[in-house]
Amino acid sequence: MDANRKKTLQLSISRTMRNLEANNMNAAYAETKEDALKLVKALIPSSAMTASGGSVTLEECGIMRFLREETNYIDRYGKGIDKEEQRRRDGLIFLSDWYLASANAITEHGEIYQVDGRSNRISNLAFGPSKVIIVAGYNKIVPDLSSAVIRVKTVAAPANAVRLCRDTYCAKKGICVSPRHDEADLMCHADCGDDTICRNTLVMKRQQEKGRITVIIVGEELGY
Question: Which CATH architecture has domain 3-143+201-218?
Fold first, then answer.
């Protein structure tokens, strides 16, 4: 990376981390995905009950493998799990010690922006598990919430819809069927059928419980 670009990027990361801390979230920086894995391992004891949302970032960092092999991991994505068993595991996840996920976007104002289909991820991020770790590459950082919406509509949602084999407009066209939004509806959810992955939106701002959420920003492009 060009030295000048790297300098401005570091300023953006520092600004974001400072504002996350101001919003009662812990913020840490990892230069590489390997460093991010080390940080996660240092935080989570092997005896902990853990769970996660679906995340390309966690897979890329090797964190999913760590959770499955070295912690008491509640796997709601395993093969052969029917809806009844999945619902039972969802209840356990709500009571887990550590919940891990990535973010659709993180603003420089210290806000975390998430959009979900089934909404199990955003419900656990907002309330439930004792501790939450969010791991995100620097590519998830945006100036503000309006930019976060655009990022989801043009980058995150289309790529995830393709990954999940969804029959949606964005999976076919690479952009949301409704790319616009307004201040009254930050997401401006469009009707793109039953396969949509954009049903509910969560904006995580100043937290009541200081330190429940730890955000690890990685100096690499990760996930969607």
Answer: 3-Layer(aba) Sandwich (3.40)
